[in-house]
Prior knowledge:
alpha/beta
Amino acid sequence: xxxxxKSEFYREVTIYTDGASRGNPGHAGIGAVILGANGSCLMELxxxxxxxxxxxxxxIALIKALEAAKGLGVRKVSVRADSELxxxxxxxxxxxxxxxxxxxxxxxxxxxxxxxxxxxxxxxREENAHADMLANLGIDxxxxxxD
Length: 147
């Protein structure tokens, strides 16, 4: 599910991303919020992604959010994520050792280079409540279909 909060064009955004997995690996979903420079909500992303680990879900959330920002014509991106692993891998502090994460990492790296400016920072989980809620809604949307 993708929703537009406002249909305005922005060249600079802040993106909050989160992935969730119930089981690790288990039922997984992604969530992201794209905010304009003035803090207005441009887009929300919430999606079921199948069975995945939490780290895979975190990377998929980042990738889907960067693809959405690219589709909006954004040129400058500031990402906020509560996954310390993803953030530190994206900035080169940690190596990507997992063969399951490597292709996701490579795709995220390719996408980040498509922006004029890109930065990513770790935030505490409490600061990421909106994206977390959307990630869990993504999981719930699929599980509700099965009941």
